[in-house]
Amino acid sequence: MELYTLRSPIEMYAQSPALLAAETITYLTFLLCFLHAYRNGGEHMLLLAITLVAASAVDPFCLISPQIRNYYHDHASLLLADRHVAPWQFPLFCDLAYLGAAAVWRLQLPLKVELAAVAVVNSYTFYPADQFFCKWLVYQWHDSDPLYADRNGAGSGQCVPAGSSMWVMTYGITGSLVARYAAKKYYDQGTPLRTMDVNWCRSFLLGVLVFLPGHIFPLFPLFYAPIAMIYGDATLAVRLFFGMCAVYWAQHWWLNRPTALANNTIQHVGARQSTQVLVLAALVWFGGLTCVGLFIPPESVRSLSVHQPFGGQNEATSALCGENETYLFGLPGAIRKKYMCSDHFRFWQLCKGEEAGNAPQPGDETYAICGTKGDAAFWWEYFSAIGIGVGLHLFCLAATAHAGQKEKKNAQEKTKKKEM
After folding, report:
1. Mode of pairing for the β-strands spanning 310-312 and 340-341
2. Per residue in 261-307, pLDDT tens?
């Protein structure tokens, strides 16, 4: 086994600018999220630590085990375990959980409303990134896995699996719930959660154990899977869940606008501190995604790395194209194509040079694929998703700024009454 491979940023800049951009955006955003969490402490650090450890445990297992192995990476700056694991994704999963939750926590909402708001904000924080990673070949989902057969997106960018969009919401909800519950428990006891104290460490260890199964169960088997199987369209489950969360949040906000920010029984300690850092993190995230869309054409991308095994052109010319494999340890219905064949490519293509005489041979796992041009429908959705994400973060920022001014005014009025 090849334990690790390294790739210089200079080589990535020349050959894989989109991948370099993905890593840069991820690491810079994570550093700013870490700084914000460090300054706020308590549940902020708890959320960041739990999602980082969980990602570091789950992602390698999903990629190394042939029983899962549901997506493949482009050749990143660091790859582990025969080029299957890209560690830059560990902080990426922290970014997707933290950016949305930290913005929503500032609103000081009741728990159920808060979780619904986290699902909505997280969804549009990460959806344009999911589009970027898929369209620009930063990673490629297994092309024939039934779990990812239904794809979100518009036009030539319809490549984001519905399961990924659902997972983003459940990942954020579970992380926020675990951190929020721990903070509430100790707040009620009169011992606020402080980073690295005994209560925090105990909550961290227990939180990881709860988070690992909690971000999959029960929502996926009890909500997502039944709708996907009954209607044969997993995107319907995603739209329903997102819609319910959005309506619940909007309904609460509309009915409780005068008191929504003032009368919450549980306060997030320090949730409104270090505003500039959180704003800068969102600017790096959404600004980076915007720059990628403006300056790096997806059709210019070439990914030379480990991919789903290549089977040839089609079933008529190669028997491998019709070969299936079982996965998920033999669960009923867990059957997919083992090899990917060029006639069935949906989101990428063989590169021109490879077609001219350097094409991958049947059975190859390491070969080059190239991106495809984005059409008008894709670009409209990509930049619209970024705009919606920015709008949601601005809403959280503006609402809490107004609430802060109102609280300051109320405090001044109380002080005047006491002096009188």
Report:
1. parallel
2. 444 444 555 556 789 999 999 999 999 999 999 999 999 999 999 99
| Bridge-based pairing state of the strands 71-73 and 139-141 | antiparallel
φ, ψ dihedrals at 151, nearest 5°: -115, 140
Predicted structure pTM score:
0.91
Q: Shortest CA distance to 349 belongs to which of 294, 378, 293, 307?
A: 307
The sign of the torsion formed by the CA atoms of 400, 402, 408, 411 equals: negative
Peptide bond into 309 cis (omega under 30): no
What does the block give as tokens for 296? 């790096």
Vertex 215 angle, CA 211 and 218, to 5°: 115
Q: Tell me how far CA of residue 156 lies from CA of 125, 153, 299, 367, 371, in angstroms.
A: 21, 8, 11, 23, 11
Residues in the chain, total: 420
Q: Quote the Cα angle for 296-55-245, to 5°.
A: 80
